[in-house]
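To close the chapter, one final illustration. This time we ask the reader to focus less on the individual chains and more on the assembly as a whole: which components sit near each other, and how the overall shape emerges from the parts.
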Amino acid sequence: MQPHEVFLQQLITGLSNGMIIALIALGYTMVYGIIELINFAHGDVFMLGAFLALTLLGVLGMEAWSPTWRIGGVAIMLVGSALFCGGLNWTLDRVAYRSLRRASKLSLLVSAIGCSFICTNLGLFWGGVPMEVFAGGVAAAAPKDFPQLIPQTNLLGASAIRITPADIAVVVVTVPLMIGLVFLVNRTRMGRAMRAVAQDATAAALMGIPVDRVIGITFFIGGALGGFASVVYALYNNTIGFQMGYRAGMDAFTAAVVGGIGSLPGAVLGGLTIGLVRAMSDQYLETQWTNTIVFGMLVMILIFRPSGLLGTTRREKV
Amino acid sequence: MKNTLPTITFILIASLGLFASFAATAAQQSESSKGTLHLVSSLPRTGSANAQTSTMVNGIKLAIEEVNGQIDGWTITYQDLDDASPQRGNWDPTVEAQNANAAAKDRSCVGYIGTFNSGAAKVAMPILNRAGLVMVSPANTYPGLTKPGTGEANEPMVYRPTGKINYFRVVPADDLQGTQAANWAKSLGAKKVFILNDRELYGKGIADVFQKRAKEIGMEVVGFEGTDAKASNYRPLVTKIKAVGPDLVYFGGTTQSNAGQIAKDLRAGGYEGLYMVPDGCFEQAFIEAAGDSNLNDKTYITFGGLPAEKLTGRGATFREAYHKRYGSDPEAYAAYGYEAARVLLDAIARAKTKDRAGVLAAVAETVDFDGVLGKWSFDANGDTSSKVMSGQTVKNGKFEFVKVLGD
Amino acid sequence: MSVLSAQGMTMRFGGLVAVQDVSLTVQEGEIFAVIGPNGAGKTTLFNAITGIYEPTSGVVQFSGREVRLGWTALTIARIALAFVLIGCTAVVAINVESLWTRVINANYVYLQPFPWGKAAGDFFRALAELPFSAGIATGCIGGCVGAATTLILWWRSRRTPDVIARSGVARTFQNIRLFNELSLVQNVLVGMDYRMKAGFWSALLRLPLFFSERERFHAEAEKLLEFVGLADRADSAAGSLPYGYRRRLEIARALAGKPKLILLDEPAAGMNPSEVVDLMALIRRVRDAGTTVVLIEHHMRLVMGVSDRILVLQYGKQIAEGTPAEIRANSACVEAYLGTESHG
Amino acid sequence: MRGRFGAITIILTCAAVVPIVDLALPESLRISEAVRGVFLYAILALGLNVVSGYAGLLNLGIAAFMAIGAYAFAILTCEIYPFQVGFWPGILLTLPIGALAGFVLGAPTLRLRGDYLAIVTLGFGEIVQDLLKNLDTVTKGTQGINPLPSPSFGGEAWTASDEYKWYYLLLAVLVIVVLFVRNLERSRLGRAWFSIRQDELASRSMGIRVERVKMLAFSTGAAIAALAGGLSASVLSSTGEPSNYDFQVSILALCIVIVGGIGGIAGVLVGALVMVGLNSIVLVKAAAALAALGIGGQGNVLLSPNNWKYLIFGLALVLAVRLKPDGLLPPRIERSMR
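The assembled structure is written out below.
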């Protein structure tokens, strides 16, 4: 490979990875925007979404389907995981967070951490389901192979640069979702209600907005994004495991912060930035220093822009 | 203040009470004519290593069941201790020290099977050494635990405060496996190798040995990188690997540190060369995690000992018994666990006095042991004399024995 | 002499101009009031004066001096120090493995005494032999990053509320901001904090200074609470105070730093008539004790009753300034403000 | 004013008699060794309490400072390095080293708004592990550094088996830390911490130099965490590996502080007892007891008690904050401050 080909390839890889991170980050940033909670369970909800997708795949026997049918299968998984993760996230809010609205933010955080542990454990149990896709459930904790429904062959033929259908799938799923989300938040009644609750929940309640419902719906949408992301992630990486939520969640949260937490375009920009920085650092420095580089970048960005790249400085009402 | 005191008192009493009830049940022991000899294992049972340790414990239990829990009229009891804690999800030095101390204090305990992680062994070894309790590890491969001059300047004396050897292992150390792996890589025709390691004690150690040997025998090492076991994929790294064009990628690591994902990404990224991994990946879970199509024909796995289906005699019996008992073929770790337990049981049977000192002496005298890993003895350092290493490949989603590695 | 002088104050938030070209001068010993309808920009003006906002343009001077950390030799020394320290740290950090090998591993033989002198020599030799990229270049880049960071952090803290408060300007807030979980005395003591000398070590080790100071300031705080009429509740939590008392506690907290100038933001809001009368007396007492008072207020009886001079704002612009009598006679003001107020 | 000190005294006195009671019990019922872990976590959580409880700065990377303390202690004292300063100087040096690390992280980032700081500390927690792994010439990578010295008062050096000596040493350190933290809490500085936690802008407007006060909290917390790290390494005579100081440790410390009652020393002590007790006493013994009874089969993931530990721990957290949102022993600051 020529140096410029290597660079281009890293660009493609970085963007694909960045898109997935961005999709998870959107879920974080939405929930954070509305109740200022770092939803630690988000990464684990995402993980459970991937397990559901694999279960659907196994139950419906999608591996045997023809390539065109497989696209339908992917759609089923996307919808299924999104509904499931959305519902799960909504349930977490209903059961574990709603009663703590008035308590300190830290209590809420601990509740989220608790939920994260519970979800992780559920993932472990799920991995033990005696199904063929889970390797018969013999080693519940082991990482699970996610079959390549979208092939990883090179669309550019024999070229040294590879663009695979999986890369394309990431873009095809992610970009419309992002656009749809921006539309939802900026153009619809529901979106207006969300923004109102985010700014001032008490005032919104006085204006007749059903605050708890709006928050619940935000959790649902955030979770659903995580669900979509989980399928995209699984199709791209082809491995899932019950502990994958932590790193994915951490990357995504860093992305949300880099972009400016609470800002939807910021989350996308942050995700792409992190994906690219990771790829470039892997290539031109050493892999073992990549995390350090990402962290250094985070600190530098926050020194120069304390509210993230696209975040707005919130003026305190005095 | 008024409602503080009851709260504290309640919490104190409740936690003590809970604890006491559990401890009381744990203390139940069965009676027998001559008495009880207790074995414990200390392995990480919570979290990511659970898959391997489960098969190990299966192996240990099988070994004890085979003697019906009785030797010379002594009852053999066994306890499966967890050296991981839920908040860590991995081995926890505090818990390992607790396990070791508990075993050391329990006078009926005559054997300690463990640890899984070499790091945990470093914590447990001095404690057990002072207690004179024999420790047999089914999995530690860090050379410095037993072999002078391979680790830090103070190793291994530092693990033997009494000067006596009480630590034995049934698996060959990294120095042997890494060297053999490099030799094999060369005989497979590799000229340029790219070496990865998971930056863990086991993976880094074996990758270092591989690198040293590879250079000695004239292969070109085009890259040496530490990976992040928690990463979601390694695509950027694969591009980097492809750019320098090696014929073989060696990964020092385990299934848990993402060997499967690396295999996948190598193929997805268009790398077409060979891929070699050590025995940390010699388990079906590796093939399942990687997807067989990514491994078939181009993946090589080294293993200290012979694989189950090549075993004859003792090993063949083990394979059948295991299959009958658990419904699946034993994996590498099951064999190690079984072997460790059997060494101890064998020593108990031979021991002149059925106590710690007797068992320790008997273990140290293990010679020409007819085990599932071959016929071997413990050398003066407590290492297995077995130098048999086997090479495997993957065909049609199954491991397939290729050859016995040797110099 | 003017205690406070703000000239040409403009405060813009995005497209919105909250305060436009407002100037005011407050003389020592005065009670100065700023009035205007809701949204006229009074609180914004206060915030700009006390450093919570950085005014878009305009100059604020207290006692003829602009309160803003300036370029002193110390600042420059700090930035230079950051450059050197972080630069050196960067060089050592980047090369830590090679330096360690060369200095420690090469010289230390297990359990033999360590040749410190030779190791130190090796350290400097190894540093000197570093290649340009790992040595000087890394040092310069690291140093520049460090210096830039220090500069930015310093720049942002040049005119923060604490800098202004420490120069003797105290304030209260429109939406009372007491420390609800602290007791009344503690609230006042927070206001005294910057006058205290006992630091970390005297607190940690309970040095004599800690005790003497604690005694002194506690006594003073209790006296202040007495001054505002809250002495009997000194040890209850501020959050448990009735509304009317909270304003007083805020005033006591503001006075605790012995300020030359105190800014009161709507001190009479939510008070009943008799409380307002008490408040007027309190404000006068504050002034008589030697503190200049600037207040924002809607309550006309209070404003007209205590103020020496009044500034009227409307839509962010100043429309009049003068004594209460002059303002009362100014038809524009009556129309803009007093007129509507009389209905409400 | 007296009240909370009463609570603290009761807890610490109870802790002091545990080994004596222990001696009267049969071997399998003794818990003093496990309680030692409670002490270490209590010290760590007291450090975190200064940062997150008093000053209200959410720190998700306190374990990183623990790691720094452990490795600093190890490098300064282990016989494979030339320094070998001995146990006491080594332990005392962890304090300034931890504080310095806190300063280095805090100086550029303490101005960040709450949750931005949280993610920076979370990242720092990961980075320190990476650094310790990557710089293996210095830190021995994942090998861990051993053996580490233990204190000796004239006689022979202690070993891990001298459990009662260790028990009282750790208890003594805990008492000293409690005293020092209490001294800080009830001082000008503690007042400033509480004030910025409640209303940063108001305290700033009262002339509190928020950055400096936050920095003191951050460094103090880091120093105490480093002390906990040094002590835990010394007890084990090994640093373990870098990932022994990962996010999970930080989270446990945070849960201790919040479940116990954020901002109060008594709360932290109770929190440590409950959380670590649940984790390393109740769950461990329960799993062992079930295994001894023959429960815990093969094949099915649900049957092994070990597989339930995360779930139980998580449920405990959710229930704890649900039932007691302000913690088990919420401090009443207006009384405790004096």
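Chain D touches chain A through 50 residues (CB under 8 Å). Residues 2-336 of chain D form a domain with the ABC transporter involved in vitamin B12 uptake, BtuC fold (CATH 1.10.3470). With these observations in hand, you are ready for the problems at the end of the chapter.
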